[in-house]
Amino acid sequence: MVQLGYALSSEEFRPNDLVENAVKAERTGFGFALISDHFHPWMDSQGQSPFVWSTIGGIAQRTSQLQLGTGVTAPIIRIHPAIIAQAAATVADMMPGRFFLGVGTGELLNEHITGDHWPPIELRQKMLAEAVGIIRDLWQGGYTTVEGDYFTVDNARLYTLPDPLPEIYVAAVGANSARLAGKIGDGLISVAPSVKAVDAFTKAGGKGKPAFGQMTVCWAKTEDEGLETAVKQWGYSGLPGQIPSELALPRYFQEAAKLVTKETMGKSVVCGPDPERYHQQIKAFADAGFDHVYIHQIGPDQDGFIEFAKKELLPRY
């Protein structure tokens, strides 16, 4: 049985608005949510990018049942894994049993800001594996010293530790990253209904672990209105391959998104008011092996989507 969740888009909303959206999602019946962790928005037209850990603190105080995870944090360049270990432990202590840490290999868009070298994906995967090991070591509560291939930790100890400790879910699209997720993660996060990703994750140690799929939509009164909003606010998602991981600035995404048409967008994003199209896409994720689907509504009309989800989506799952 698929569980439905809600995506909190840090690229599109101010922090207090994200908190309010989380409250509305909980009241509506969404059991979980994932919140994006960015330094920059994808595109200038999105316009926001608050510090996720401050926002999560607000959500922790305003919700009581909603499970929440980062979707996703890259603990490899911009922020040292020891700092992520402390941040995640703190928010997990604020919302016991309701927080999980989603991690991934990141995008140049966010990670270049400290001026460090942007490694190829194969190296970033190795960095992520080492970073997750450091986070888990620090969560044991003793003094931790690491002289790793990529990170150094010198006699660090976390004093504020939650009970229970949060799980760590690993983001992946391709098979190699999915295998890594199966080896080091407690679950999988992906952005497409990929059978290959789930299969690789399962065979590498992910059997029986949760698989979360992000489904991007743009509910609107008409399909054309939804497509127009999607192209304007989230046009980058129509770009092929590894392009989204390799562009450095929001204005570059803004320029590249000019190549994306409504027709192109319609192939990857469900738009408009027809509930059956949403159910078909949810089924595609379920058929691929995902047991959790969290829905990202593009644009400012979150209230319209939440009301739609309350009537047309949540009752069936």
Number of strands: 11
CATH architectural category: Alpha-Beta Barrel
Number of domains: 1
Strand content: 15-25%
CATH class type: Alpha Beta
| Spatial extent as radius of gyration | 19 Å
- In DSSP terms (H or I, runs of 4 or more residues), the helix count works out at 13
- Give the mean pLDDT: 96
Write the element-wise H/E pattern from the N-terminal end onward: EHEHEHEHHEEEHEHEHHHHEHEH
Query: Helix- and strand-based class?
Result: alpha/beta
CATH topology name: TIM Barrel
Across the major sheet, the strand order is: 1-2-3-4-7-8-9-11
So, the CATH homologous superfamily? Luciferase-like domain
Name the overall outline.
globular
Task: Report the uncertain regions.
Answer: none
End-to-end Cα distance, whole Å, is 7 Å
Structure report:
This protein has 13 helices and eleven strands. Helix 1 runs parallel beside helix 13 and helix 3 crosses helix 5 (121-138). It has one domain (3-316): Alpha-Beta Barrel (TIM Barrel). Strands 1-2-3-4-7-8-9-11 form an eight-stranded parallel β-barrel, surrounded by seven helices. A two-stranded antiparallel ribbon has the order 5-6. It is globular, with a radius of gyration of 19 Å. It is of the alpha/beta class.
